Fold each of these.
Amino acid sequence: MTDVMIAEVDTDAVAKREPARPAVDGVDSDLVDQLVEQARTAGLQLTGDGGLLQQLTKRVLESALDGEITDHLGYDKGDPAGKNGGNSRNGARGKTVLTEVGPVDIVVPRDRDGTFEPQIVKKRQRRLSGVEDMVISLSAKGLTTGEICAHLAEVYGAEVSRLTISTITDKVIEGMAEWQNRPLDAVYPVIFLDAVHVKIRDGKVANRPIYLALAVTVDGTRDILGLWAGDGGEGAKFWLHVLTELKNRGVADVCMVVCDGLKGLPEAIEATWPQAVVQTCVIHLLRASFRYAGRQHWDAMAKPRSVDQVWSRNRVIWDWVET
């Protein structure tokens, strides 16, 4: 009943409306309003199982698949040009795909030679990419596989197993491992080293340091060389492990390494790249300066207008400390 109702939309009447509303992103706004109004009149839900969005998603996917097989065969459906022309259409098969609007039953056309490879919904594909992005986003927010399954069932009416959720998230882990071990450039002008503490769930939630290496390439672009999760507090021993890994991945030399004043870190850098210049981060120097000033002076110290002012202020403080 829903398919007939959508097919009977009077597009001629829509075109005669005055004034005509402009199309938004290539979609006829008046036609969309007509569809929504007819759906409401017929008591059809816009979302949910069997709703208007599911019906439109079905139509769009099936139209795209029909277009793909037409391009593959070289002639339209029912065109006499395809008669006795070798490969031809060979019926269709049904399948259910999980979309962002819920499960959608579609019909996928087939050819006699079996050479048709659909791209919009590939063979053996049961989920559109938007669903996988949703699962990854929910997982990144800390939801368990069971909570994600319950969310998809409650909001979209889709029954997804925990194994499927784990399979989707495992793909991301595989991609991260490949990115983490990719080859690097031989020389970087500057590499910034720092660690941030974040809450990580590994059986229980705990604060763990994430070691970050950010480089400036010879082309002037920024590139994150890697991320490493450490145990306990930030330490120079783990930094030595990180630097050794970077060198093994192809980084033969670095002109300057910018880091904080962590004890033992300059020695770890020198052991890895003996010719590299170790530069203490100006921001870390500024923060360290707060220890030698009263709270009433912090605001004034935290508002330098140039790098020269930062160095000037820190030079005065460090000279005073050394004396």
Amino acid sequence: MENKFDSYVEELKSSKEWLDLDSLRKKTLKLYVFSWFLGVVLFILAFVILIFSFDLISFLGCLVVSVAIPLMLVRKYLKEFSAKYKGIVVPKLISDVITEFDSNADADSNQKKNKCQYYPTEKINFNLLASFPLFEKYPHKKTIYDGEDLFKGTIGETHFQFSDLVIKRNRDLIVVDQDFDFTIFRGLVFIADFHKDFDGTTTIRTRKGKQYSLLKALGSRITTISLQFDQMFTVHTTDEITARYLLPANMLERIMALRSIFPNKGIAICLHKGKLIISIHKHDFFEIGKASMPRSRNIVQTYTEISAILEMIDVLNLNLRIWNKK
């Protein structure tokens, strides 16, 4: 697939956006070096304090700062560079992904035209997120809600949106008389129409992979008709009859196929009042990772991530409308 994007990279190299990205890369590298130089200075200062004053608390404080500040600055600079990269590359890749979906669509079907819009600085609405029982424990007066890379659109009959999210909660630590922001969710959240209308709530969670403790599974735990599925997932529901209607054998197979797309990540799926939400934990999608000019493999990775997420609609067969679903 890299060969497919070689020409795209060559085309980018002659654009103003590419020159701007290269200028930002050089600036980022300088700031990167400065950040670690500052860290070394603070590290030396910490030992000077220890040698001449024997102040252990000041020494430890300066030691922590000498590591924390460079890491924070480097992360900030890389985030800015990655945002610039995504602004150049992602719109083109979305167009390619949608074109591929169009080419794979049944020519005789009456599907609506596939479309997807990208909003780099926006995120899924928090009220919408909190309307799903899976996330109902997250609203709190000390909750800090952030995110980026919002994608919204339609594939076939299915409306969808997804974005990276970071949710933190501010907590007071009495021992040190300080308050800190603790991450209580980091990952990608995908929301779409489900292909069946239903009431109640059914939650499916992988047995392996990092998951956040605040995510809530309502109702009673049930087993499915598939032993293989039950070895990979746990299922809780407020209505067992509805859950079995939503999860026939073919849907269980499709969810297992979805698991194969993200085999090492913690995944939670919540079916609630005709909607579907999927959370993929502990992964920051679409980032370039370092301050170097993107090559074909970087673009292939970003393309693959976007395509894999949108592919969930086909994998779960969400465009097949059942009975009263419109």
Amino acid sequence: MIDAFQKQRLAPTAQPRGKSVLIVDNDKKLMQCLARAMEARGFKVTTAGSVFDGLAQVRLSAPEYAVVDMRLEDGCGLDVISRSSNNDLTHARSF
């Protein structure tokens, strides 16, 4: 028999509908891991491996969120956020 606490634990978590995230990282394995985790939570995920590609993806996909690596080969991940035109990103996190 399942009690109320177990039902709550088994219930699906609230899924963000229509939320999109850009993940910018030059470590492909980590980027794939993050992408799978975000997709499992209902996010539409776009990825990029550099600042240059990240900026292009911001223009193409207009994500609401960004998770960026601080140490990329062509700059700092924060460059993706600061150089995004018209503050396209609603929320951003760096690591």
